[in-house]
Amino acid sequence: MNQREKGSRMEQLACTYLEERGMRIVERNFRCSAGEIDVIGYHRGYLVFVEVKYRAGTRKGGALGAVDYRKQRRICKVADYYRYIHKVNDFAKIRYDVLAIQNEDITWIPNAFMHIYTRNM
Questions:
Q1: Using CA atoms, how far apart are residues 85 and 121, in angstroms rounded to an integer?
Q2: Neighbour order of strands in the sheet with 105-109
């Protein structure tokens, strides 16, 4: 199985996990020139942008540690664009979650980080 197939399989596992816990998935792999967001959905009144990280082992570090400040900033920039093109109200409740899959263990961190404002889209 190549990396792309493995990534798709892990994202499907993540979506199933989130849906079983009440999230309504509205989009997967949203892309624009600024980057990509793995999963977008609604959960408990929030529009949620989810970063999915998978690590088979710990050689490259843990899955949770892979969502650093730079990655968070990029996710926020893409989320801003998504909200703009979908005309999401400026006062809508939004949240940034991380779902980490390490070997077979799944860890979901709701509200993993706060929005990082960028100057331009």
A1: 12
A2: 24-32, 35-43, 46-55, 94-102, 105-109
Q: Is 63 helix (H, G, I), strand (E, B) or coil?
A: coil
DSSP string, 78-104: HHHHHHHHTT--TT--EEEEEEEEETT
List of domains in the chain? 3-109 (3.40.1350.10)
Neighbours of 111 (CB within 10 A): 12
For range 16-40, the mean pLDDT: 96
User: 4-8, 44-48, 82-86, 112-116 — which is least confidently predicted?
Assistant: 4-8
Contacts of 31 (CB under 8 A, 6+ apart): none
Q: State the Cα–Cα distance between residues 30 and 78, nearest whole angstrom.
A: 8
Cβ atoms 77, 121 nearer than 8 A: yes
- Range 18-34 average pLDDT: 96
Predicted model pTM: 0.90
Give the model's confidence band at 61: pLDDT under 50 very low, under 70 low, under 90 confident, else very high: low
| Mean pLDDT score across all residues of the chain | 89
- The tokens describing 56, both together, are 């088979």
